[in-house]
Amino acid sequence: MPTVKKMTLEWLGDLKFVGKNENGLTVNFDVPVEKGGHGTAPSPMETLLACLAACSSIDVVLILKKKRQDIRGLTVEVSGLRRDEDPKIYTKINLKYIIKGVNVNKEFVESAIKISHDKYCSVGGMLKKAAEITTSYEIIEEV
Q1: Which residues make Cβ contacts (< 8 Å) with residue 127, sequence separation at least 6?
Q2: pTM higher than 0.90, yes or no?
Q3: Taking 90 as the threshold, does the pLDDT of residue 143 lie above it?
Q4: 101 forms bridges with which residues in the sheet?
Q5: 79 with 92: CB under 8 angstroms?
Q6: Which of 39, 53, 56, 134 gives 20 to 30 Å between its CA and that of 92?
Q7: Which numeric CATH code is attached to 44-141?
Q8: Would you say residue 1 has pLDDT above 90?
Q9: Is 5 helix (H, G, I), strand (E, B) or coil?
Q10: How many C-beta neighbours within 10 Å does residue 36 have?
Q11: What are phi and psi of 88, to 5 degrees?
Q12: Which residues contact 83 (CB under 8 A, 6 or more apart)?
C-alpha cells in the first residue's frame, strides 16, 4: 500500500519559510541575499542537493555496516549544475563520498554507492530522470 507523507510550509516573512513534518520536526528555507533573501538558511535547491546526499548516505552507511566495515566518518561533497533558463533545474549532479575508517574495503564502498543509486535512494531515483548523477569517493585510513 502506498505511503502518504505530509509536510506543511509556513511563510515567515520576506523570503523565509519553515517546513514541518507530522512529528513537528522542522527545516528552514531562505534564498541568497543576491536573490532578495537574507541568506539565513539553505535555498530549496540547495536543500535538494543535501536531500540527495542524505538519502544516499543512509544507504551507504547501512550497507557498509552490514558488510562489517569499520567506518568512522562519512562526508559527502555534492555539487549541482543548473541550466540558465527557467525552471532552473539541475542537469548534472556529482556526489563525492569521503569515508573515514579502518581497513575499509574499496570494492564494498563502490558496491554500496552503486546499490544506493541504482536501487534504494528514492531522492536519486526521482532526480536521475532530470539530471545526470555521477559519483566518486575517497577512503581515508584512520588508525
Answers
A1: 48, 52, 90, 93, 133
A2: yes
A3: no
A4: 71, 141
A5: no
A6: 39
A7: 3.30.300.20
A8: no
A9: coil
A10: 9
A11: -80, 70
A12: 89, 91
The span from the CA of 101 to the CA of 96, in Å, is: 16
Domain extent listing, the chain:
1-41, 44-141
3-class secondary structure per residue, 55-109: HHHHHHHHHHHHCCCEEEEEEEEEEEEECCCCCCCEEEEEEEEEEEEECCCHHHH
Q: What are the φ and ψ backbone dihedral angles of 25, each rounded to 5 degrees?
A: -80, 145
Mean pLDDT is lowest, of 32-41, 51-60, 74-83, 133-142, for 32-41
As a whole number of Å, the CA-based R_g of the chain is: 17
Q: Report pLDDT for 90.
A: 98
